[in-house]
Please model this.
Amino acid sequence: MNISLKKAIIFGLFTAFLVLGAVSMKRAMPDAKEERIYQAIKVYSPYIVQKKVGGLEILDKRSGIKEKPSSQEIFHRLDELDKKWGKEHLRVENNEVIVIGENNQTVTRLYIENEKERSFLTSFFGI
Model:
């Protein structure tokens, strides 16, 4: 085999592994969030991540039910649960997000500061 052909094959394999690694890292990352509004809403979400000796688990504060997805899937599953909760318990009125409690009462109102936060609410929570 020619030396330049060997170098080309090694370079091709290296590039392929590099691309595959970047793609798998991109898939493993949870959705990007608008930090200020997400953190303000997250206070009222019933789902929290608990650290245990065996890894991470998601706890539903309302029922006490624990989920233990794999470490690769935990933040994707937390996003799914938050999105489902948000569709049922969040409303947008004018420039405010209204957090609705279990008995359809208003828990709090959060001010939407800019268009980025509004578009985040639409894309992430679907409201």
